[in-house]
Write a structure and sequence with these properties.
By secondary structure, this protein is an alpha+beta fold. The chain contains 10 helices and 23 strands. The relative contact order is 0.14.
């Protein structure tokens, strides 16, 4: 099924990127501990026409936090720290007090779960000017406590930067050396780096969001220094798939035990939006299924890593622009995988290869593809094909089909006819929208 969905991504994604004016993207899908699909689209550098592939480096932003959370849980397993330990036990400077609370009560778990109540990004303008601080303690004052600890979820990049310092204190290693030795090396991750290094080639450029009246500019790459444990990492779609596959596959304990992984999602914090949060992981409820992972947003990058622990399938989507959300595309790919399993029927299979392709008319570009045992059709300008598709059911005695769809505006029970077969492919499709031409 993954290979079949990969074929659909090959058709769908180049057009979807054009609609959203996305310069480049990389997608990877893994099953259990194997990367089954990994591919790049578009350009990392549009001026030089530098193409993206599955090994191209992206700034993965807050997905970095997942590595930090894993490192903390590893140290818990080794009994070098406890989640209930106060942070100041390891960082004596982490003390502040006001009417909202006392920092001496803030624990390691509070920081990992974003429930400490401290400020989000410190007191410097690093997201605006790119000057990320090299030290943290100067920023932490009585004014840093904004909510009572454990009263609510409150996202904090600063909190994860502090966790990086805790890891250094407890392990006796630099944060970078620890993560490399205990996460990257065991998983064979050769294209993942804790912070930006101009001497490492292969980074995609990060493009500005679309702003009316101007061409998107390119952001310079910034070193994140003390904030690297929260947002500094660079990685590729292929490497992140290795990480996700190991991290979430039940039988794989190379970097973390099943008990620790379970602990990370045991308590769900309400984020006030469409997801909940555990410790270093976002939690998404999709129907009766739960998906886990983390999103990321950096200057010029949008990213998502998702995993279904029951099916043991992970999806990674990396985009070098903030003009489109990687999260909606990653969720769309997951929905296709699930829908494909539903549409997989036993018995004789039809050969739909001559119909598969993209057809254009005045209204839209339509992707025709095989999903499961069915021929489906959906608009290419769509992040969630599995929600908005028609199943084309063959009519005996020709190249005609009946459209079946839950979208009652989309022509249910209408007839779709393919014609003009050349070189083993049909070149026209006629539906209630009129005549469409293969592109």
């Amino acid at each position: 099924m993954i290979k079949q969905v990969g074929s659909i991504i090959d058709l769908w994604m180049p057009l979807r990127m054009e609609y959203a004016q996305i310069p480049g993207m990389a997608v990877a899908i893994a099953h259990k501990d194997k990367v089954v699909y990994a591919k790049g689209f578009g350009y990392g550098d549009t001026a030089k026409k530098q193409k993206i592939d599955s090994k191209t480096l992206f700034r993965i932003a807050s997905i970095s936090k997942t590595f930090t959370a894993v490192a903390i849980m590893q140290l818990v397993e080794k009994r070098k720290l406890r989640l209930e330990d106060p942070v100041y036990t390891y960082l004596p400077w982490f003390t502040a007090q006001n009417k909202k609370g006392n920092a001496s009560a803030i624990t390691i778990e509070d920081l990992v779960s974003h429930s400490s109540g401290i400020f989000r990004d410190g007191d410097t303008d690093h997201w605006g000017d790119g000057k990320f601080p090299k030290e943290l303690k100067e920023s932490f004052t009585n004014d840093s406590l904004l909510l009572k600890r454990t009263s609510s979820f409150k996202y904090s990049n600063y909190g994860f930067a502090v966790l990086g310092k805790v890891i250094e204190e407890v392990s006796g290693m630099s944060y970078e050396d620890y993560v490399h030795a205990h996460i990257m090396k065991p998983l064979g991750m050769r294209s993942t780096f804790v912070d930006y290094d101009a001497g490492i080639p292969g980074h995609a450029s990060g493009f500005e969001r679309r702003i009316p009246g101007r061409t998107p500019g390119v952001f310079p790459h910034y070193k994140t220094h003390a904030y690297a444990p929260a947002t500094g990492f660079s990685s590729s779609a292929e490497d992140l798939s290795k990480f996700a596959a190991s991290f979430f596959t039940s039988a794989d304990t190379k970097i973390l035990s099943s008990a620790s992984r379970k602990k990370m999602v045991e308590k769900e914090w309400d984020t006030g939006v469409f997801m909940k949060h555990g410790m270093g992981l976002d939690i998404f409820q999709v129907g009766k299924k739960k998906l886990y992972g983390h999103s990321g947003g950096f200057l010029g990058f949008s990213l998502m890593m998702l995993f279904d622990p029951k099916e043991e399938i992970s999806v990674v989507v990396l985009i070098n622009s903030t003009s489109a959300g990687a999260g909606s595309i990653a969720h769309g790919i997951f929905e296709m995988l699930q829908t494909g399993m539903t549409l997989q029927k036993p018995g004789k299979q039809h050969n739909y290869s001559s119909y598969i392709g993209i057809y254009r008319d005045h209204w839209r570009d339509t992707v025709c593809a095989q999903l499961g045992s069915s021929l489906i059709a959906f608009s290419a300008n769509n992040d969630a094909p599995a929600k908005f598709y028609s199943t084309l059911v063959p009519i005996k005695g020709g190249d005609a089909f009946t459209a079946k769809t839950k979208d009652l505006f989309a022509g249910p029970e209408e007839t779709v006819v393919f014609a003009d077969k050349k070189g083993g492919k049909f070149h026209t499709m006629r539906s209630f929208l009129g005549r469409s031409i293969r592109i």
